[in-house]
Design a protein that fits this description.
Strand order of the largest sheet: 6-7-8-3-9-10
Bound molecules: adenosine-5'-diphosphate
Order of helices and strands: EEEHEEHEHHHEHEHEEHEEEHEH
CATH superfamily of the largest domain: P-loop containing nucleotide triphosphate hydrolases
Helix content: 25-40%
Amino acid sequence: MQALSIRQLSKVYRNSITALRGVDLDVEQGDFFALLGPNGAGKTTLIGIVTSLINKSAGEIRVFGHDLDAEPAKAKNCLGVVPQEINLNLYDRLDNILINQAGFYGIGRKAARKRAQASLEQLELWDRRADIARNLSGGMKRRLMVARALVHEPRMLILDEPTAGVDIEIRRSMWGFLSDINASGTTIILTTHYLEEAETLCRHVAIIDQGRIVENDRMAGILGKLHEQVVIFNVREPLASAPELAGLGSRLISDTELEVQIGPGYDLNEAFKLLTDAGVRVMSMRNKANRLEEVFFRLTERHEDQTPEADSP
Ligand code: ADP
């Protein structure tokens, strides 16, 4: 069964900004899924709609088969949400925060206490249960947000930028907790602009840019594509068909323009040798701009821009 199924989701804000343009997305049960994209791509809007915080303009969403419009309570019961901003009642005790949250899902007080304990233990906060949230460190507050999202035992956990602005140690420890939660059977979707985060944690990744899904693949597939370069050779003699280049993909763009995919493990020297052996003489060449690489390039640039100070030595 699909944990999440999104069809033709669109969002136009009141100021007529179009944040989502017909998004289709499926996330399988048990998956660890990254929604990756630069700032302003539409990630928060998408998550906001799935978690009923933002109204969609058009489209259909199913959570474990429950239509969000037709069966909102059933759909919401399957979801645990960790928002980007810390929104805890800072003067409340940790155990009360979780027990109250369980109450929102109609869980009785006795059962809620048990669930609160299990969640706090899972996130290693049980020792602090009688403390108020204000006294926790930044990393612990984020863990408390995750514990709170898990208290009603949702089948899917959605996190919006779970490690934005936190130092590398907290980020790593959060990765450990999230991996364990996923290993215990909970489907996880997270948004991030940290490529490394997606690469470390996730099995599937969709890249969103300007409100459209521009890539959607297994992590391994995405990384494979990233390491491939595409070069266009202008050749001296017109070609009737693309030559066979052992191990490299090639196709004709026009009779004097040959596009060659140079995969991981190959270099330009080998491409030239294969072309020479095939009797093809190259006049000039250029790199084909790769859409995916462009998106990643911008992402990693922003990654560096946004590295929090705490990350600096
Ligand atoms: P991301 O989470 O990927 O950074 P967002 O979903 O926050 O992207 O934003 C997508 C687009 O929608 C951006 O152009 C943003 O300025 C716009 N946007 C987001 N929230 C609102 C809002 N409440 N009103 C108007 N425009 C918004």
